[in-house]
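Protein entry
_____________
===
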Amino acid sequence: MENNSIKTVVATGIGAALFVVIGLWVSIPTPVPNTYIQLQYAVQSLFAVVFGPIVSALVGFVGHAFIDALRGGSPWWSWVLASGVFGLVLGFVKTRLRVAEGIFTSKDILIFNLVQIVANVLAWCVIAPVLDIVIYSEPVNKVFTQGAVAGIANSITVAIAGTILLAVYAKGQTQTNSLSKD
């Protein structure tokens, strides 16, 4: 039990640090104000599949809060929470995939991408805009436009970069029953 707790803390710390560094250095603006194409969600998706929902939720929540704070403002809690929810939802796919066993088939890629799209739609097209309205009294059209653009951009970046990261990770693992006795 203690070993699992240490693993969770270490994975969360490394994941959040990577989330912050990538989020600060690779943030491509879109035509919609305060909305970016961000590659850190691809890294978060790797942590979701390898470590599960709790680690991934914390990576997104802590990482996003730090990015907002380091950019000179206070965290925008509606979007911080959405990053955590994205990780939480996507983390449940861990039990359906076998990347730790070195297996990442076309079917696995399809399952991963269907779940990540659902997680992105929930996080960015529902949770973030609704909380923007409730917490910050933001205009409805503005926040749903921002959420839709973020959801689409994140779905595409995770589909491409997240799938590549998972394929590379799986390839580096020893496949079950792949070793034979000489």
Helices lie at 2-25, 40-51, 53-70, 77-91, 106-136, 140-171. Residues 26 and 129 are 23 Å apart (CA to CA). The chain has six helices and two strands. The mean pLDDT is 94.
